[in-house]
Design goal:
The complex is a heterotrimer. By secondary structure, chain A is α/β, with parallel strands linked by helices. Chain A has two domains: 3-54, no CATH class; 71-214, NADH:ubiquinone oxidoreductase Nqo5 subunit (Beta Polymerase, domain 2). Helix content of chain A is 40%, strand content 16%. Chain A has helices spanning 2-18, 22-25, 30-58, 61-69, 72-83, 105-114, 175-186, and strands spanning 98-100, 122-130, 137-144, 151-158, 164-166, 189-191, 219-220, 223-224. In chain A, a hairpin with a 2-residue loop joins β7 (219-220) and β8. Chain B folds into two domains: 1-82, no CATH class; 87-356, no CATH class. Chain B is globular. In chain B, α2 (19-54) crosses α3. Chain B has helices at 2-9, 19-54, 76-85, 97-112, 132-139, 142-153, 157-188, 193-199, 212-215, 217-233, 245-248, 258-283, 298-320, 328-356; strands spanning 203-204, 208-209. Chain C is an alpha/beta fold. Chain C is built from five helices and five strands; from the N terminus they run αβαββαβαβα. Chain C is globular. Chain C starts with 11 loop residues before the first helix and ends in a 10-residue tail after the last helix. Classes of the chains: A alpha/beta, B mainly alpha, C alpha/beta. Chains in contact: A-C, B-C. Chains B and C meet through α3 of B and α1, β2 and α5 of C.
Chain lengths: 233, 358, 163
């Protein structure tokens, strides 16, 4: 019985790879149909892998080495440098992240989302970093692509006194809350955000807690904030 | 009829001709009020205990110091009632004061005056009107006004939402209830409660009592429709969206504390009893014993009526902890798209069945 | 009861009435379920089948006006502290507060560096019973409730208290 099923699944998958997926869709048993679909996905993935392995064999050895060693970040960084030459800070980028100037960030993010080679449609996280007393604040974005399954990290640096970064909330909608949190904790203002206000702390809190030079306020609406009782030290 | 007998019994005073009637009515109202109070204590205790047993818990157990009736916690509802009386009475400053105070009374009156037509036994009925069941259905609609007043006068958006939902639900579910009673009235050709019960005397097929429940498959259906609509009218689960805790805090009664809240509570249980009493009288034979000829003295009549009503109240409590809650739109769908067509077909069916078979 | 409180000299009748009032209030404490964080799970577990809060007569109510006891279960942040105060003021007298867990008692694990945590709910509302633990076991919460019952029974609302 199992052999019959395996035979059936194999035939259905072969037919589907040629282009006729109705054979799979017409299988009545739900379990068998789902197995056939899973086998089809696996077969397609192997076909792509074979094609990728086939093509470097056709090129010369040098380019194949460099393609294997380049990470996604460098790959995307090269793409970005071609499109936006002044905005990528090549010295500070590494094989793990891409450093960008904030001026054209909105256009770059749109490019990252829409370009067929990138297709970063999922903003995984926005976080802020305080790099120390004398240096700047930094905003870091983690982007991920569902179709190409690659991920990249973007960092944007801004001075402590005038921390303003363009908001990507209109590009990736989830940026709304991420940017509110970064604003709440670091005081980095995101220009173009439709409703930038504190999300975790109360509205009338003073100060940006995750900055290194943060001092807790003494009272909040008459309630004492720091630790109160004696003998707690 | 108790009121009639009392009126005959009193000497008529020439100076105030109406005084006999007023005294007779008050003398009937006080025992009813006492009955409602005692019954509410029993029903609250029953609900706490039964719901606890259904949830595999134990329920009120007489923890704590002193007289608490051993481990059965029989005095728990008494303690609840006493505590509610001793609470501070809060009227929100932005609430409409007169309506706020008036609302619990209107809800209570709606449930209370329906008791005057309930047939507790062959002789124990306060007013055996020839429109008895029609009177009960009409008067139990008064409660809706009280709930709307409660929600509006609290000046609180949760109360208003809860009151509107509750009013919509009660008003909608009165229609299938009334239509099921129409099916009953068609057969018995009388609206008087005692008359309906007399119709159900005797046996069918030699052993089943001639209750309307068994008489006719369409009245069998009408019983279920009436009972479920009654459950909806009392705002009980599965129809308790208006007072669902997770949805609307406490619904229309959010701002009520202490004794005013106790009044709402009391009227909910009184309403449950009215619905069960009407269902027991109209469909289950009322105060008649299931075996005619045995155990049918007036004293036993009271016992049969109370046990049938209590059984239906037990069903209501059982429903609360068995079924999940219906959403508001599902509730309305069930009523308007389900129950009303079925009850209309019912009326038709009852007549045809009776013509052909009965 | 505001009219009658603290009015009468101590005698037999008043003492028995006091006892009756204390009994009624302590054996049906309806609690305002104020579960904020992890201690709320333990409160739910206490109200569930194995340890049953309904045994003691506690029924959960969700409206502060109908509740007697407010069980503050969980971490109280400063943002929430203002709301706790507001809800406490909406409860009807006589009202009691049980602070459940170490976060509500004194800030809990966040006592030192938690800039956003209220170091103990007694900075905003008067607390009657503290139940320590992180989270306290259901038995511990029930013991706290029984202590609250003793406290309620020892109140003498009618008797005039001499200085």
């Amino acid at each position: 019985m199992t052999d019959n099923l395996e035979q059936l699944i194999k035939e259905a998958v072969e037919k589907a790879l040629e282009g006729d997926i109705d054979v799979i869709n017409n299988i009545e048993d739900r379990v068998t149909r789902s197995k056939a679909k899973a086998a089809l996905v696996k077969a397609k993935r192997e076909a792509i892998k074979e094609k990728n392995e086939a093509s470097p064999d056709e090129n010369s050895n040098d380019s194949s080495d460099s393609k294997k060693d380049k990470t996604t970040n460098e790959h995307i960084a090269e793409l970005l440098i071609q499109q936006f030459p002044d905005d990528i800070n090549k010295e500070l980028s590494s094989n793990k992240h891409i450093q960008i100037q904030p001026k054209n960030w909105l256009v770059i993010s749109k490019y990252l989302r829409d370009d067929p080679a990138c297709l970063f449609d999922s903003l995984q996280c926005i976080t802020g970093v305080d790099l120390g007393e004398e240096s700047d604040l930094e905003v870091r974005y983690n982007l991920h692509s569902m179709t190409h399954r690659h991920a990249v990290e973007i960092r944007i640096s801004c001075p402590r006194k005038k921390a303003k970064v363009p908001s990507v909330e209109s590009i990736w909608r989830i940026g709304d809350w991420f940017e509110r949190e970064t604003y709440d904790m670091y005081g980095i203002e995101f220009e173009g955000h439709r409703d930038l206000k504190r999300i975790l702390l109360p509205e009338d809190w003073e100060g940006w807690p995750l900055r290194k030079d943060y001092e807790v306020q003494e009272t909040y609406h008459g309630i004492i904030v720091p630790k109160v009782k004696e003998g707690w030290e | 009829m108790i009121v009639d007998r009392l009126i005959e019994w009193f000497p008529t005073s020439a100076a105030w001709p109406g005084i006999t009637f007023i005294v007779a009515v008050i003398l009937c109202a006080v025992p009813v009020f006492l009955f409602i109070a005692v019954y509410a204590l029993v029903a609250i205790y029953g609900e706490l205990k039964i719901s606890s047993f259904i949830q595999d818990k134990v329920g009120p157990m007489g923890q704590g110091v002193g007289l608490h009736a051993w481990r059965w916690g029989l005095l728990q509802p008494v303690a609840d009632a006493l505590k509610l009386i001793l609470k501070e009475d809060i009227i929100p400053s932005s609430a409409d004061k007169k309506l706020f105070i008036l609302a619990p009374f209107i809800v209570f009156i709606g449930a209370f005056i329906a008791f005057s037509a309930l047939p507790f036994s062959q002789t124990l009925i306060i007013a055996d009107m020839n429109i008895g069941i029609f009177y009960i259905l009409a008067v139990s609609s008064l409660g809706v006004i009280g709930i709307i007043l409660a929600g509006w006068s609290s000046n609180n958006k949760w109360s208003l939402y809860g009151a509107m939902r509750s009013a919509a639900q009660i008003v909608s579910y009165e229609i299938p209830a009334a239509l099921s009673i129409v099916a009953v009235i068609m057969l018995t050709s009388t609206m008087s409660m005692q008359g309906i019960i007399q119709y159900q005397s005797g046996l069918i097929w030699g052993f089943l009592p001639n209750w309307l429940l068994f008489n006719n498959p369409f009245t069998f259906l009408a019983f279920f429709i009436f009972f479920i609509s009654g459950v909806a009218e009392c705002n009980r689960t599965p129809f308790d969206i208006p007072e669902a805790e997770s949805e609307l805090v406490a619904g229309a009664f959010t701002e009520y504390s202490g004794m005013r809240y106790a009044f709402f509570f009391l009227s909910e249980y009184a309403n449950m009893f009215v619905v069960s009493g009407v269902a027991a009288s109209a469909f289950m034979g009322g105060w008649q014993s299931p075996i005619p000829g045995m155990l049918d003295t007036p004293g036993w009549g009271l016992f049969w009526f109370m046990s049938k009503s209590m059984f239906l109240i037990f069903m209501m409590i059982w429903f609360r902890w068995t079924f999940p809650r219906l959403r508001v739109d599902q509730l309305m769908d069930v009523c308007w798209k389900g129950f009303i067509p079925i009850s209309l077909v019912n009326i038709f069916g009852v007549g045809i069945w009776h013509l052909i078979v009965g | 009861m505001g009219v009658f409180e603290n009015k009468f000299q101590d005698n037999v009748v008043v003492a028995s009435l006091d006892k009756l009032m204390g009994w009624a209030r302590s054996t049906s404490p309806w609690f305002f379920q104020f579960g904020l964080a992890c201690c709320a799970i333990e409160m739910m577990a206490t109200a569930a089948s194995r340890h049953d809060l309904m045994r003691i007569g506690m029924i959960p109510r969700s409206s502060p006006r109908q509740a007697d006891v407010m069980i503050v279960a969980g971490t109280v942040t400063l943002k929430m502290a203002l709301r706790v105060k507001k809800l406490y003021e909406q409860m009807a007298n006589p009202k009691y507060v049980i602070s459940m867990g170490s976060c509500a008692t004194s800030g809990g694990p966040y006592w030192q560096h938690g800039y956003h945590v209220l170091k103990g709910v007694d900075l905003v509302v008067p607390v009657d019973v503290y139940v320590p633990g992180c989270p306290p076991r259901p038995e511990a919460l029930i013991e706290g409730l029984l202590k609250l019952q003793e406290k309620i029974q020892s109140e003498r609302p009618l008797t005039r208290k001499t200085a």
